Amino acid sequence: MLIPLSFLLPLQLLFTASPSLQTQPQGTLHRREYFYVGENYVNTPGTNNGSQIAAGQVYVEHLVPARVTQSLPILMIHGHGMTGTNFLNTPDGRLGWADYLMAAGFEIYLIDQPSRARSAWQMGVDGDQSDFDTTYVASHFSAPEKFNLWPQSALHTQWPGNGTPGDPIFDNFYASTMPSLNSDEESSIKVKAAVGKLLDNIGPVILLTHSQSGQYGWILGDFKPSLVKTIIAVEPIGPPFINAVFPPLTPARPFGMTEIPIAFSPPISSASDLKIEVNPALTNASLGTTCFRQVNPPRQMVNLVGIPTLLVTSQAGYHAIYDDCSVDFLTEAGVPVTHVRLEDVGIFGNGHMMFMEKNNLEIAEKVVLDWIQRTIH
């Protein structure tokens, strides 16, 4: 039987890699689709003719490996200034956590937060935005060892490249950052609405959050406790009630770990019902960290007490200073938290963007996947 040339040519292109691609990892065979959820039609700003635009929607990327062997998909939510591309591959072209976890048999859902990147920001509807400059990204994420803003930063060794502008790996990473809503309260409200609808559509998930989106784990687990089966919080925003390390050390997250209300038992009518005190054992004024805890007996985060949670902290990131305080607050509030400091399991030199760093797959294997396998039955 003759095979048409038009059929053979795509195969030749598929299996004949250019020299620049021959050293790249093959990745995991999968099917990809995308969709949107959570949009609301609002009147077009500045008009009175009844025209409308969509706002509040979230872009969702769905990755399905050729062999799905796990019962629960993983929903990954990125942090401030970032997008779902964080988890696809690293800035230097290596496989990311999404690929690794697909190889382990998981379906993956990635989102861009509402009002960011492929989830459109609508002028006149959504709040003000700002973005990270290169100094912020280098000093906090890719090259903190060069800036010495916190003691542990000197231990940072795992970023690929030198982590500063002009290095092609840094430039690739920085180009991926996006303007984000200034208000974490507004972001939280929008994520709760849109991702809540996503959960209604796709069913139960393992929820993986990072940094700013850490509070969305608690919010979504509280909002949809039957659909959030576990939470993996990679350096979640904290500590409770106040900003830390970087001035101004202003009050934040009035509900402890979140900007917007979640359920407590006994119930609260406002954030002021949460009576707090300084935890001296976990406070370090010289490092810009005040740790607050609830006054005994602590109210329970009642909708989260049945959700197993993993909180991961790097050795060299700024969360090394205060994640213990976040864990203490969550634990006293009844959340079943396993806290893994990477150096305690033999993984050294990582910073806040650990899933992009040179040993990213070691973390995925030894910490994330290991905990999932021991927790999900």
Verbal overview:
This protein is an alpha/beta fold. The chain has one domain: Alpha/Beta hydrolase fold, catalytic domain (Rossmann fold). Helices cover 24% and strands 18% of the residues. The protein contains eight helices and 14 strands. Strands 1-4-6-5-9-10-13-14 form an eight-stranded mixed beta sheet, with helices on both faces. Strand 5, helix 2 and strand 6 form a beta-alpha-beta unit. Helix 5 packs across helix 6. The relative contact order is 0.13. The N terminus is likely disordered.
Overview features:
377 residues; alpha/beta; Rossmann fold; eight-stranded mixed β-sheet; two-stranded antiparallel sheet; 8 helices; 14 strands; 18% strand; disordered N terminus; Carboxylesterase_BioH; AB_hydrolase_fold; AB hydrolase-1 domain-containing protein; AB_hydrolase_1; signal
Concise overview:
With 377 residues, the protein is of the alpha/beta class. The protein has helices at residues 5-15, 97-103, 134-142, 168-175, 184-202, 214-223, 323-332, 360-375; strands at 30-37, 40-43, 52-55, 58-65, 74-77, 108-112, 129-130, 180-181, 205-210, 228-234, 276-278, 292-294, 309-313, 337-341.
Beta strand % = 15-25%
Q: Mind describing the biggest β-sheet?
A: 8 strands, mixed
Run of helices and strands: HEEEEEHEEHHEHEHEEEEHEH
Number of helices in the DSSP assignment: 8
The first-level CATH class is given as Alpha Beta
- In CATH, what is the homologous superfamily? Alpha/Beta hydrolase fold, catalytic domain
Q: What is the CATH topology assignment?
A: Rossmann fold
User: How confident is the prediction overall: mean pLDDT?
Assistant: 94
* Sequence stretches where pLDDT stays below 50 over 5 or more residues: 1-24
- Report the principal-axis shape: globular
Number of domains: 1
From the helix content, strand content and strand pairing, which structural class follows? Answer: alpha/beta
Second-tier CATH architecture: 3-Layer(aba) Sandwich
Reading side by side through the largest sheet, how are the strands ordered?
Answer: 1-4-6-5-9-10-13-14
Through-space gap between termini = 50 Å
Strand segment tally? 14
Integer-rounded radius of gyration: 21 Å
Fraction of helical residues? 10-25%
Organism: Collybiopsis confluens
InterPro entries: AB_hydrolase_1 (IPR000073), AB_hydrolase_fold (IPR029058), Carboxylesterase_BioH (IPR050228)
Pfam families: Abhydrolase_6 (PF12697)
Protein name: AB hydrolase-1 domain-containing protein
